[in-house]
Amino acid sequence: MSQGNASSPGGAAQGAPLPEAGYRSSGNLEKVLRGGHFSVTGELGPPRHADARDVREKARHLKGNVDSVNITDNQTAVVRMSSLAASVIAQEEGLEANMQMVARDRNRIAMQSDILGAAALGIRNLLVLSGDHQVFGDHPGAKNVYDLDSVNLLRAVRGMRDDGELLSGQKLPEGGRPRLFIGAAYNPFADPEEFRVLRAAKKIAAGADFLQSQCIYDMDRFKRFMARAVDMGLTEKAFFIAGVTPLKSLGMAKYMKNSVPGITMPESCIERLKGVAKEKQAEEGIRMACEQIEEFKGMAGVSGVHLMLVEWEHMVPTIVKEARLVPRPAP
Amino acid sequence: MIIAERKPLDEITGFIAGAGKVLVAGCRGCVTVCNAGGTKEVEILASLLRLDAAKDGRGLAVDEITLERQCDPEYVEELSGPLGKGYDAVLSMACSIGPQFIARRYPAQAVYPALNTCFMGGALEHGVWAEHCQACGNCVIHLFGGFCPISRCSKSLLNGPCGGSAGGKCEVSKDIDCVWHLIVEKLSAAGGLEKFMGIELVKDWKTSRDGGPRRIAREDLLK
Prior knowledge:
The complex is a heterodimer. Chain A is an alpha/beta fold.
């Protein structure tokens, strides 16, 4: 993928080409979704060191199999290569990055600055999150920031893109607006359940063009959520993408059930893995994920799947093939 | 009120290693109410220090005093007499404002904090206190059903619970209520959840600590 060295009419450096009419970004993910295709996004966790080869190696498994790849921002509050740097490396490898940005580590000055920088470097998608609390990470003594929360950060990004204005009111020149397709997260499995769809609605009102969910295992609860989102007209306003993380083992399923806040794991998933020999559990997990994906394809309001195979990226080619998600629309 | 708790005894004895004469100074303000630094706690700490010294065969004289408030120069002045006796160290059992005021008024005197100042909060039950305010300087609790998301949400979120809220508890600890769960419950019961859908404006932190150390000067009270 080109790094967008085209010049704007004013001669200023322009990170990505200007969007075509009817589009907010010049990115592939937006084209796929607006084109009515069932989108596939992947996830790539940057390494806990500075060797770019790690990102390039993971990118190889994803290339051609996904429309865009989320590059996580110090996920689980563990220090990793920055999402911006890893996004640029992933794009050099021919992927389209969906750069994640959490509100935990930076104030509004740093975040707006990084957004301008990301757009200048050719990033087309930005997914905004609150971020995992730092007590879970490798620097539990760190000070957190949360100057803006994720909803207000979404507003800030949209303001920069659509109104050409920073939060301060400072104007951006026409050619210097970050033309980003804006993403947010939604979690139908956190509590209070009745509020989760309203939280998604707030994010859409604040500027989210697409939303990707937390890992889905509890299909009944997910269906309840989507039915309500459809009823409220939210799926007309933004693209809802369903999050899938195949279970590698019974142990992983139990860990997700007991130790990961905001994930619900139905007993049926645990029972199904229990019924399979240990060495066959990963295969069964992939099969379960493919069955889920098949359901999502036909589910009202669901526009795509988000495959979160962190540190299991090499299984992405298998899962997209088995779930009949390839070939992807040409960028 | 300000909630504080006593530092570990080892840390306090470390402050006064080598001292022969110390004054333990309590405060009748917040720290008396939260059982951290009132007359009773002064007495307990003084006894512990005497026992610790006796155990090691060291000579240590420990005197006790409790001021009305240590955050008020008028009462800090009351130390001028006692401090004339020549203490090697003063252990203040007020919130951190007390030892700061004492150190400023008596620059030659060694002063140590015997408490950790923890937060602004209230008593949930006898012996349990919880944070309820972060002194952001611009109170907005009326927008949130009377709850403060700035101090009581681990991420100070202003637009609803994050994805880590589970069973009414915060992802950070099962001992922390998810304040957003409480807000949503309260507003739902009052039928006001739709009001909440309006996006809260970006918080102006100037009135908080981020604007630099704060000061209030009341013209009507200034002479």
